[in-house]
Write a structure and sequence with these properties.
The chain is an all-alpha fold. Helices cover about 80% and strands about 0% of the residues. The protein has helices at about 1-5, 10-25, 30-35, 40-70, 70-90, 95-125, 135-165, 170-185, 195-200, 205-210, 220-230, 230-245, 250, 255-275, 275-285, 290-310, 310-340, 345-360, 365-370, 375-400. It starts with a helix and ends with a helix.
């Protein structure tokens, strides 16, 4: 019986995995749409922007909805949205409007996966569903599944687009197939939001009250999470969007392959280091978040210097460091959220955390807009300095809010 309960989280994990896959498998294909589809830089940036337009509402609304109606039905909706997005993207290569619609649906699906799916995995990683997991499994498992989905989705799509048949459709067909399998696995996954959690006490709160997520005013959230969260995806975006773009002229037709390599290196390193985050946190007295941000700065400095020299090896080294920082900071942030939130507020606060994190995804777009004013060496160096200032704020917040 214990072994069966320990496997409960594995029944929900494939759904979270495919939702993450559906969000990032588009990233390595950007050069394909520019070169083969003849889309302009503005159009490609629009595809990214419409993804965020679906993602943020998905993050902010789905969490409170799942706190009220349950994790399982919202997760099913998220997987179905991902399937719909891939089907639209597979058949809409020449329609900018439909491409934007597909990306928006993909963003909404990923938002549900990050807010609801990760909360569900956390709850399935503690008693009574799993009595054998350690204290960090609730943060480590969701983060790892998300990172694997992001990384493997990008890697598989990049390989299929570079060397496989029907490059504009095959990556999406693979995602649809995996998503159908994930829906089948969900059938026996247990619900964790009980009627007692949905309506604590004698009086149920309104959905409007749930959407407010009052714990965003928590002193630990304001002083530690807010200054740290945007850097999680900002530095990952530098690794697999900015660096391969700078190397593009040297790579020619292999730009897609190099972009895929850096995406896999970044997210693969992030996945590999996540199981060790608990040890880092213990060794540093609960300061793993500072370790992650320090690693970010090192990666940004290398990326800044390499923006002048354009070494493929140095670009890969920067991607590894940025990936390591991503993995450590993501798990550390989730641990903080799970310590702040109650079961009733967990998904909602997780959604806010990921929304703040995804603000950093706009950094590559901002850098592109500023490229006419300064070189990427100067721009990335400036970003490293701002990251250092944020690290100082987080360190001060950790000291001020320690019990």
């Amino acid at each position: 019986m214990r072994a069966a309960r320990a496997a409960f989280w594995l029944r929900a994990a494939p759904a979270v995995f495919v939702m993450a896959w559906g969000g990032n498998h588009f990233t390595p294909l950007l050069s394909l749409y520019r070169d083969v589809g003849n889309y302009s830089e503005v159009s490609v940036d629009l595809f990214l922007a419409t993804y965020v337009l679906g993602l943020v509402p998905g993050l902010l609304v789905s969490g409170p909805l799942s706190d009220r109606y349950g994790r399982k039905p919202l997760t099913v909706i998220g997987v179905i949205l991902g399937i719909a997005a891939s089907l639209i993207l597979a058949v809409s290569f020449h329609s900018e409007v439909l491409m934007c619609a597909g990306r928006m649906l993909a963003g909404a699906g990923v938002g549900i996966g990050m807010a609801v799916g990760t909360s569900w995995l956390k709850e399935l990683s503690v008693a009574p569903f799993d009595k054998t997991a350690d204290s960090t499994a609730g943060a480590r498992r969701p983060s790892l599944i998300l990172t694997l989905g992001f990384g493997l989705g990008a890697g598989a799509s990049g390989v299929l687009a570079q060397w496989g048949p029907w490059p504009t459709a095959t990556p999406y067909a693979l995602h649809v197939l995996l998503s159908v399998c994930a829906l089948a696995a969900l059938l026996k996954a247990p619900e964790t939001v009980t009627p007692e959690l949905r309506h604590p006490g004698q009086r149920a709160t309104s959905l409007r009250a749930d959407l407010r997520v009052p714990l965003v005013g928590h002193h630990r959230f304001r002083r530690v999470i807010v200054p740290a969260a945007p850097w999680i995806f900002a530095t990952a975006g530098v690794a697999y969007a900015v660096i391969p773009m700078l190397e593009g002229e040297r790579l020619g037709s292999m730009q897609l392959g190099y972009a895929t390599l850096l995406t896999v290196l970044t997210l693969g390193t992030g996945a590999l280091i996540q199981p060790f985050t608990a040890r880092i946190n213990k060794a540093t007295g609960g300061r793993a978040l500072l370790v992650g941000m320090s690693t970010m700065i090192a990666g940004l400095v290398i990326a800044a210097v390499n923006a002048h020299y354009l070494s493929l090896v140095a670009g890969a080294v920067a991607a590894v460091l940025l990936g390591a920082s991503y993995g450590i900071a993501l798990v550390s942030g989730l641990v903080e959220i799970q310590q702040i939130a109650t079961g009733r507020d967990l998904a909602g606060l997780t959604g806010v955390f990921y929304s703040l994190s995804y603000l950093g995804f706009l950094l590559p777009v901002a850098l592109a807009g500023l490229a006419g004013l300064a070189s990427y060496t100067v721009l990335l160096g400036t970003v490293a300095v701002v990251c250092l200032a944020s690290l100082a704020l987080v360190a001060k917040g950790l000291r001020a809010t320690s019990a």
